[in-house]
Amino acid sequence: MMAARNNTASVRWPAIDGLIGIFVCLLIAGCTVGPNYKRPDAPVPPAYKENNGTQATVPPPNPPGGTWKQAQPADDVLRGKWWQLYGDSQLNTLEDKVAVSNQTLKAAVEQYLAARDQVRVSRAAYYPTLSVGPTGTRERQSQNRPLFAPGEEVTYSDLVAAGQASWEPDLWGSVRRSVEASRSNAQASAADLANVELSIRAELATDYFELRGLDTDQKLLDDTVKSYSTSYDLTVNRKKGGVATESDVSLAETQLQSTISQSIDVGVARAQYEHAIATLIGVPASSFGLTAQPLNLALPQLPTGVPSALLERRPDIAIAERQAQAANAQIGIAIAAFYPNITLSGSGGFESQSITTWFQGPSSLWAIGGSAAELIFDGGRRHAVTDQARHSYEQAADNYRESVLNAFQEVEDNLAALRIYQQEAVSQQSAVLSARRSTQISTNRYKGGVTTYLEVLTAQAAQLANERAQADLTTKQFSSSVQLIRALGGGWDTSQLPQIR
Length: 501
What we know:
Strand content: 5-15%
Order of helices and strands: HHHEEHHHHEEHH
Helix content: 55-70%
């Protein structure tokens, strides 16, 4: 009988060891429930419609009395500090201050850091929780309690130094999906940071060019005021000589004062742009100023790249795509709730009624165990949560596709604007040259006594209107080029997303 029992033991224990081994492997490996993420499909055109098969925008025709210096891009896509394409040292200096002083950008940085910390919070669920703490009590029990035995101690001390450990192994991938969701949200936050920075830098460049455009307008009006002053003096002298009338003098004075008023009015908009730039670079508006400088920069060629690359170069598209992955991970978290929860726990320490024997061997205590729990009925809650997660993912996927469509629209809008402005600039330049010739002819006719001053005034007004329109058109071209850079992602790409572990 004894031998038989020994033989039985030799057969049964390896089987138990095997079961334990399988269980341990299951704990270590586990499985990850829920769908694996795949980037949602989005419509991508083969080429930009407004690019006419070329890879770069075309600068406007040469302005009167000068030429544009065409900047040459180093590659077929934007890279790095895109604002340096314009070759303006003052703009470069202002853009360099954005990363250091802009408060909106600083807030976005903190938001990203908080999202990155959330990844660490989610990863902490991989590991067991450990706690330890000593306790000491002095207790007296009632002698009138039930089952009291005469002579039994009623006053005693209880000293305990124990620790507890608890671990819920990630058998179904709930923690892994949580980490995946947190990581995707952190990358979305990083993309949002890039998008905020791109928006701020583009706004700064746009405000800068608008301000320089107003400086051009200001110089044009100041030069016109000088010209009109000369015409006014000529009319006054001609009246003294009996050649001109009082009406001619009044017309000349009206035109002069009206132009002076327009020149003064430009200062309002210029001051507002100057204050906006101060806020963007993080300095008080009252302590910031820019000297007047007309907009005579080179309008650079802007490489657009291929449409398929836009999906990797727009931070707002990256935000939507990362949010879709986070939503997809939530499906796995919801599905994991259908599986049992397994918890392993243990505790150990020392307990004694005297401090002298507290940490001796006989005072040691320990316990180890595990539990499994499966939810049998929840009124359909888990099914509803899973369906909700699936719908949230579909919503995120639709938002991603919408962001792609909006991105292509913005690129096409600004490509079209630059193309149309270029055509308009050709016509406007001809109009300015014709207006100048008309003014010269009318002035000569007036000096020769052939016509009245009204003809000169009409020609001068047409010249000023066309020259201001030309200056405004140049500003629009620079603003549209900045908006095109923004629409193309400003040199950013998804390889700059942090690889958070």
